[in-house]
Amino acid sequence: MECARGATKRQRVSTVESALASIDVLGHLAAFLEAGELCQVRATCKALGSRDDSAFDGLSMTEEAASRIYESASDEEKAMLPRHDDEGWIELYHHLLMLRVPLTFDQIIGSDVEYQEGDKAVVRTTLGTFSQSSAICGNHVMRAGKHWATFVFDFRKDFGDHSVGVIRPLPGWDQRTSENFHPANSRYWADRTARWEGDVDFCHFYLSGEGECYYSNFNWEEGHGNTKSIWEGVDDYDCRNEKLGLLLDLDIGTLSVYQNGQKLGTLKDGLAGVYCWIAGFIGSYGSGSASIERGYNVNKLSE
């Protein structure tokens, strides 16, 4: 009886593997899977993970399925996701999926910041002592094209400085359990990678005060430090309005700020390579929240 059951189970597994061995079947299946799940499928059997040169020009079947999904993406999506030379198709498929979902603060680095009611698109802070913290859209990496984000801040009894902007991807940094983190502090800077281009590794716009903007290349040894950007339109910035939009245009390498449905100005040019959205919090006392939304939401900005 046990032998019969074992034989039946092996037959069922063999049937499933035979079905998945068709690239058309796997392609349809892959369209319903996350990139991590596709990696798990690749690991289930040799036929799906093999890079036999005679199969798909050196790609495994799962990688071929991921490449076909990417090729079926819209022209706009592919323009925003040019493939890196060292990038696998499943990794690229992951970024395509991230492009299609709402923005979320996937990484919280530092203390005194947490998600509001479990919503990763909204973070809240309660600053009882001096603290530096950041919330980063770590899974949503921008590499080309135009990217919009709407930020809404709500701070009360606050004497801190809070900022929004862009930063290089920092994978794994949220696992370091750092008590404080802000990109302006050089002690937290990261090593460069091949996907970083140019000398603007972060650029952040302060919401309080006079709308100051600072940038750096994460390497003071090259003399770029935390430099103030002088931008036209700063006189029109209203710090009392805690709703604004940012446009990262990697076609021309600029970061611009919008308020009340109108462009105030270009904060910085010369941006190139890969970036993530970031919200930074520095302060001694106060509480409040910050939310992010993909796109330019004029209605939200004008509320």
Architecture overview:
It comes from Thalassiosira oceanica. This is B30.2/SPRY domain-containing protein. Helix 2 crosses helix 6. A 7-stranded antiparallel sheet has the order 1-4-15-6-8-9-10, with no helix packed on it. It has a 7-stranded antiparallel sheet with strand order 2-3-16-5-11-12-13. With 303 residues, it is an alpha+beta fold. Helices cover 25% and strands 31% of the residues. The chain has helices spanning 2-20, 23-30, 35-42, 46-49, 53-56, 61-71, 75-80, 89-99, 298-302; strands spanning 107-109, 113-116, 119-127, 131-136, 146-156, 161-167, 196-197, 202-206, 213-216, 227-229, 243-249, 254-259, 262-269, 272-273, 276-283, 286-294. The model is unreliable at 3-19 (pLDDT under 50). The protein has 2 domains: 2-99, no CATH class; 107-302, Sandwich (Jelly Rolls). The chain contains 9 helices and 16 strands.
Question: CATH topology of the largest domain, what is it called?
Answer: Jelly Rolls
Content-based structural category = alpha+beta
Output the number of helix runs: 9
CATH architecture of the largest domain: Sandwich
Poorly predicted regions are: 3-19
Largest sheet: 7 strands, antiparallel
- Main β-sheet, spatial strand arrangement: 1-4-15-6-8-9-10
Helix percentage range:
25-40%
- Cα-based radius of gyration, to the nearest Å: 23 Å
Mean pLDDT: 78
Shape: globular
Q: Determine and state the CATH class of the largest domain.
A: Mainly Beta
- The run of helices and strands is HHHHHHHHEEEEEEEEEEEEEEEEH
The proportion of strand residues reads 25-35%
Fourth-tier CATH superfamily name of the largest domain? SPRY domain
Q: Please tell me the total number of domains.
A: 2
- The total of beta strands comes to 16
Distance between the termini: 70 Å
